[in-house]
Design brief:
Keywords: Phosphoprotein, Transcription, Transcription regulation. This is Two-component system response regulator. It comes from Bradyrhizobium betae. It holds the Pfam family Response_reg. This protein is an alpha/beta fold. It has one domain: Response regulator (Rossmann fold, 3-Layer(aba) Sandwich). Helix content is 43%, strand content 20%. The protein contains six helices and five strands; from the N terminus they run βαβαβαβαβαα. The protein has a five-stranded parallel sheet, sandwiched between helices. α1 links the parallel β1 and β2. α2 runs parallel beside α3.
Length: 128
């Protein structure tokens, strides 16, 4: 079973994302900020990270930079999931190591489509 780390300071967003990802057959771990997420990644890297940008303690962009420098840190697929929608933020995320970018609010179809695009789930599974 593939693993996904959901990093968001909103417990509601984490709960919704967990429900969607478990429906896509992911084992889900949660973190409420980038610092906690980094601790989790130092123990074991997930296959995927669904990542918020704006969080206390350590934001998503800073976390991603630290994670990418860990041994094997280039492997997890990072999908930013945020309200930051200007082109500069999207470009910064993608050039900084993100694989994809989705806007809040999201639903199952949006997550499934993006996870299929980055190769985390079969394309057909995104259409179920």
């Amino acid at each position: 079973m593939k693993t996904c780390l959901v990093v968001d300071d909103s417990s509601v967003v984490r709960k919704i994302a967990r429900r969607i990802l478990e429906g896509l057959e992911f084992q889900v771990t949660e973190a409420e900020d980038g610092s906690k997420a980094l601790e989790i990644c130092q123990r074991q890297l997930p296959d995927a990270v669904l990542l918020d940008w704006n969080m206390p303690v350590m934001d998503g962009f800073e976390f991603m930079g630290h994670m990418r420098r860990l041994p094997g840190g280039e492997q997890p697929k990072v999908v930013f999931c945020t309200t930051e929608n200007n082109v500069a933020h999207i470009a910064q995320a993608l050039s900084g190591g993100a694989n994809e970018y989705i806007m809040k609010p999201f639903d199952k179809d949006i997550i499934a489509d993006k996870f299929a695009e980055v190769g985390l789930i079969p394309v057909g599974q995104a259409m179920v």
